[in-house]
Amino acid sequence: MADESLHLIATLTVKEGKLEQVIDNFPFLLEALKVITATVQQVEPDVLRYFAFQTKNSEGQDQLVMIEKYANADAHKAHIATSHFQNFVEQAKDLLAGPLDIKFGPFVVGYESKANL
User: Fold this and answer.
1) Using one digit for the tens of pLDDT, what is the confidence trace for 94-103?
2) For the ABM domain, which residue ranges apply (predicted)?
3) What CA dihedral angle connects 70, 29, 62 and 22, to 10 degrees?
């Protein structure tokens, strides 16, 4: 049986000074990511991997890169339809320098963890 999993990378380029913008004593964008990550882990069993790391692009802009893995394409469609995802997009839109840069596809080669070897 073919592997139906879907791997996704979503890059969020953050407006100058907005990565750690403090609203109500919390770094807003980072706190919003923590909330959605915890919610996804609790209520979306077909989201198999969901985490972010921070980097900068070639222009020096702050970026957050989401690494995601879904059991299949339907799991991804279900994820983007959830209220918690839609709420995150709405909250983050004014903090981003542009649209999300999303790339996705099937696993091709390599390993996901040493436990899989």
Assistant:
1) 888 988 899 9
2) 6-104
3) -170
The DSSP secondary-structure symbol of 109 reads S
Residue whose token pair is 């963890």: 113
Give the amino acid at 6. L
d(CA 48, CA 61): 29
The fold of 6-98 is Alpha-Beta Plaits (3.30.70)
Helix axes 83-92, 73-81, angle to 10 degrees: 60
- Compute the distance between CA of residue 116 and CA of residue 70 in angstroms, rounded to an integer: 17
Show contacts of 21-25: CB within 8 Å, 24+ apart: 21/95
Q: Which of 78, 76, 71 is nearest to 1 (CA)?
A: 71
Token pair of 15, please?
């407006």
